[in-house]
Amino acid sequence: MQDMKDIIDRINSLKAEHNAVILAHNYQRPEVQDIADFTGDSLGLSQQAVETDADVIVFCGVDFMAESAAILSPEKTVLLPEKDAGCPMAEMVDVISLDDVKQEYPDAAVVCYVNSSAEIKAQCDICCTSANAIDVVRSLEEDEIIFVPDKNLGTYVSHFTNKKIITWEGFCPTHHQMRADDVIKAKEEHPDALFLAHPECRTEVLDLADEVLSTTGILNYAKSSDAKEFIIGTENGLLHRLSKENPDKKFYYLSEFTICPNMKITTLESVLNALENMEYVITVPEETRLKAKEALDRMLAVKR
Ligand code: 13P
Ligand code: SF4
Asked: Which ligand is nearest to the CA of 241?
């Protein structure tokens, strides 16, 4: 097995050779986050994919994120280091079922969470992420919104608007397993801690949160808050940056089991393999790409 320093040196030299940039989601393994040029939430990563002048984007995340980068920047080579890094929630909505619901509500706008396939994005009016979902819904003229695929996020958004939100039965298995009892127990163990939760959590969990935020929202909040202790209701990979960027503060995960297996399959070895062999290239058929891009561009134009 290669020594970690050798792997990192090799990654850095191949990065320079290919004019590549490494983007990593906040849930990635600590060592992968540490070699990335930019680590962020889904919205921040999409913005970086547009703004970078690199020729190659190595996307350390899951497939829909790399797909979004390929949709937004077709002139760049987008690599997903692990081809099986998918998102189970994204697979919970399909084009035919969505079309049935669109026919049932012909006047509704369709908002899709970025955790969805390019085909689904192509069928939607606008995308959103956990960071801008409320602003996106408020930006629309329509009074009825079909919101796919995350039921928890859709329900959360519905509390901030008078619009009728038609939710889908999708969920993130990682976030959905956290329960109100876990929060009550954690608050008993850490009575001075604030509870920061991601909107993919169940309503019963979000009802107990001090703040509901995207992953980068949690990072920003923890940094600027006067509080010294936080219970974190999202995938546990976020604790790496939280602890690193706030050495004087304490962070507790809500449950040791809040791990997304798909986010953890990318390793330093797979990043190295991606750069050595230029794999796995993510592309989207042009017709789908153009339609999906409209929904992503419309989202990126909404003020945060
Ligand atoms: P954000 O980082 O955008 O909050 O997304 C969370 C997530 O589940 C990505 O898969
Ligand atoms: Fe999908 Fe949930 Fe994993 Fe995010 S944390 S990639 S929503 S399964």
From this structure: 1
Which range marks the domain in which residue 185 is found? 174-259
Q: Which residue ranges have their beta carbon within 6 Å of ligand 2?
A: 62, 87-89, 115, 172-175, 200, 235, 260, 262-263
Tally of structural domains, the chain:
3
Cα–Cα nearest to 149, from 200, 113, 102 = 113
For residue 87, the ligand 2 atom closest to its alpha carbon is 1
Residues 6+ apart with CB under 8 A from 173: 88, 89
Per-residue model confidence (pLDDT) at position 43: 87
Residues 295 and 275 placed together within one structural domain of the fold: no
204, two tokens: 């019963």
Q: Is residue 144 located within the same domain as residue 292?
A: yes
CB 284 within 8 A of CB 216: no
DSSP code, position 126: E
Q: The pTM is what?
A: 0.96
**Are residues 96 and 49 both part of a single domain?**
no
Let me know whether 133 and 178 are in one domain: no
Does ligand 1 have an atom closer than 6 angstroms to the CB of 41?
yes
| pLDDT mean values, one per 10 residues, the chain (304 residues) | 88 98 98 98 92 97 96 96 98 98 98 97 97 97 98 98 98 98 98 98 98 97 98 98 98 96 98 98 98 97 80
* Residue 215, ligand 1, Cβ within 6 A: yes
Measured CA to CA, the distance from residue 55 to residue 45 in angstroms comes to 16
Task: Give the CATH number of the domain where residue 225 resides.
Answer: 3.40.50.10800
| 146 neighbors 110 (Cβ within 8 angstroms) | yes
Give yes or no: residues 206 and 148 share one domain. Answer: no
- Asked whether the beta carbons of 249 and 271 are under 8 A apart, the reply is no
